[in-house]
Design brief:
globular; 304 residues; 12 helices; Farnesyl Diphosphate Synthase; single chain
Length: 304
């Protein structure tokens, strides 16, 4: 996906950081086990966050395993389980349709790369579709609706963000506990809304340059690829509203072994990423953290 939902490493205890990485590695191993080696490349922080939410009050089950990223040294890894398997299924489905969307919208070079990547992932997608048919149907329905809004050059950030938000909310499907299902559905809906709006803000200069669709272009009519201070504040208010809704839903969940990490992501990580996106520094920072939450991540955070 996009990688906006992640912890602020500098505020994590060592054991919390290791636990987060263990779930990340566990999701990677689940992708490999269920869908083959190539599927590992779709692992991301957003679905690591989802996996921890799905794990709920389940106690950690750690072991050391080797992987291609660390062939000579075993890494702490969360053992399998239904939560990681579900997160793996959802990751493959969403990654496949994101690649298809990129292939349809981008220029020749990016479209060609996305098309080739989607072909490599197609067999895995078909498996995931059988395992998570309801989620796949929701993704297709809402991406189709989003594509129609893009064709119409829809100026409503609420209508467009709603379509992507519904996709993440669908990841709560299958949770039998009615109360927990409703809470996670609300939390994930607003997480999806925040991700969509942050991505729109992050891509705005590039979309204007390439004459691509971006709801912020038609809602605010930015000059020289930048929003005015008033428009930035209006967008920030609606993003903070969703972040507050995430907090409200999260506070209704039963406390579990992942609570400190989830709290870090929700209270610290997401606001910090928002700040970096609005400052125009996020793409630079993301390149520096592509292979993990390295020290640069917290150092840059400390300077802001």
């Amino acid at each position: 996906m996009f990688g906006y939902i992640r912890p602020l490493k500098g505020e994590l205890k060592v054991k919390e950081y290791e636990s987060f990485r263990a779930v990340y590695c566990g999701l990677c191993h689940a992708l490999r086990r269920r869908y083959g080696f190539a599927a590992r490349f779709v692992v991301n922080y957003d679905f690591t966050f989802l996996a921890m939410l799905l794990l709920g009050t389940e106690q950690p089950c750690f072991e050391y395993r080797r992987c291609p990223a660390s062939p000579h040294r075993k890494r702490l890894c969360h053992c399998g389980g239904e939560a990681l398997d579900k997160a793996a299924d959802f990751s493959v489905i969403l990654a496949y349709w994101k690649l298809r969307d990129t292939a349809a919208d981008e220029g020749f070079v990016k479209a060609l790369g996305a098309r080739l990547a989607s072909l490599l992932l197609r067999r895995s997608y078909r498996k995931a579709r059988r395992r998570a048919a309801e989620f796949d149907a929701c993704v297709r329905e809402n991406l189709d609706s989003l594509a129609r809004l893009e064709e119409e050059r829809c100026p409503s950030i609420d209508m467009t963000a709603d379509k992507f938000a519904k996709i993440l909310a669908a990841a709560a499907s299958g949770i039998e506990d009615v109360k927990r299902h409703r809470i996670l559905e609300q939390l994930l809906y607003h997480a999806g809304r925040v991700v969509y709006l942050l991505d729109a803000m992050d891509d705005l200069p590039e979309d204007i340059e390439k004459d691509g669709y971006n709801p912020l272009r038609y809602r605010f009519a930015p000059a020289d690829g930048r929003l005015s201070d008033e428009d930035r504040e209006e967008l920030l208010i609606t993003i903070r509203h969703s972040q507050n809704q995430i907090i409200s839903a999260y506070n209704l969940l039963d406390d579990g072994p992942w609570g400190e990490i989830l709290s870090n992501i929700i209270y610290l990580g997401l606001p910090w990423v928002t700040q970096m996106v609005f400052s125009g520094r996020w793409k630079e920072i993301k390149k520096g953290t592509r292979h993990g939450l390295i020290d640069q991540y917290s150092k840059i955070g400390e300077k802001t």
